[in-house]
Please model this.
Amino acid sequence: MEPRQASNLVESAKWEHLRREIEALVSKGMESPRFEFTRKCSLSANDRKSQADFAKTIQGMSNAYPAEERIYIVGADQRERKFYPLDNAREFDSANVRQILESLLEPTPLFETSVLDTELGDKYAAILLSAEQPRPILVKGDVGASDGKGRLLNRGEIWIKKNTGLDRATRDDVERMYEMRIEAEAERRAQQRFGHMREGVEASIRLQLSPERKIPSEDLVFGPDAEYQAYVLQLVANSDGLRLNMLLTTLSDLLIEKWYSLGAYDAEGALVQGDFNAKVREHLRNTYYPASRRLLFAGLLLMKYGAGSETLRRIGNLLAEAFEAPRKLTALPGPHDAAGLVSTGTVALEPLLAARILATYAMRMEKYSHLPVLLQKNVHPVGSRDNRKRVPFLFWPLRMNVPGNDRIAYAFQNMVKPHWMGFFGSEQSFLDAACRLEFILHLNSFLACKNTDAQAWLAKFRPDLDFGYWYASDLWRYPLQSVVGLAEKLYENLAMGPDAPLLLDFSIEHGVFKKAFQPSELSLTGNEQNIFVAYLQKLVEWQASAAMSVPGGFHLPEETDWGPILGPLVG
Model:
């Protein structure tokens, strides 16, 4: 039997059991605290009073305690031991009931509806209210009578069913509702924690009892998250560099070598495959994206649990290799020639975003000593035919932008939110760390492009490097408040000169920082902090200019409080 069929049978059995219970209560004239009966109820938009009474009854039953399923029956009276004709059955459609409750109550009660038939063919409506409700449920807004005289509902009112009547909730009632909600949430979280813990323990035990798992293979990469995490943590705990290399080799095969099996490195071979693009999409979905996520997962775990920079350098090297590999996929169109096909830009985007997310995590955790393994990595741009120039990996060495053009927001929505929230905690935490990373990238690019001494040094010693990034940074889209603390640290470090430890961690090419802050060995003037302040002033001007140049008149950025140290200097 298909799962959906089984689910439908269970649902039908539930309502059939409920139907028999309702009809037994009516036929015997019995009362039950879980059931509320009414002969008729109109949910027509023209009958505001009946809608308000209906919402108040549902609210009262949902707020009632003890927490148990409750059922509101329309079309019956158990005291009269009879059912009454339900002429407006369509009004009790689930979508219509939800629309009414959402407009009158907040939060919306959890419910199900069904129109049932008695054995004699009489119809009646049943609204089944879940035992778990987001109590307290309040009246959403004032509702006036149709004739304009008086109010039917008052905003903020809390009604609760007690015994057979509806009463306004007392303070004790509300406190009890919150206690019930807190207890339910605590139980849910405890079960969730236990579930995660059990998965982790089971995965760890499987690894210990499974000799073949000592060797990483593709089934580990495509297997459960808990088992993969347990494996990587074992590598960290045992400082097992050999098996880490084996794991990275497995990931490299999936990210780079597997393209050979598709013929993606051979433009002529791909032409004879009529379904080539479909195969590429299947490869991306089933192999490439999962392997890329596993590589990033390993990097995040290694960074979180204190692996050394040399270990993380291997992760960074493989991310860079995976990014550059699409330049050789001659069977795929370039980023600007795709026309609905999978392009080299599509393939390169995944490891590029992964590298940026890993660097953002280093900023969030303030593990700045790990940043150079990505920050100082240079690659050939994807989408460019010029093989002479390289670009710092964390800039944007991809001749293609993301939908919406906001690369920070895109990374959050498409990668962090669905996969890595456990590492970042919240959207704001990710955005703040991402902005601090952008600040470091902008600083490196701006000094390299705008400082004449730094430009001269690059032209002589690094002529193949392109630092032109600062003007394309997404930092202008976000408040600069998140970078103030980091700017203060840099300002204080510059008092020690351009060789201060923090500057060594934050420099893509340290020669740029040395020339920008200390043009010559003889210029020991202590002017480094003033040069940095001048940069911050230019940053503020650039942000305002970039925001105002957006088509449609983008709003001015939020004003930044630079604090007691930098505030008087930046102005």
Observations:
- The first strand starts at residue 35 and ends at 38.
- The radius of gyration is 32 Å.
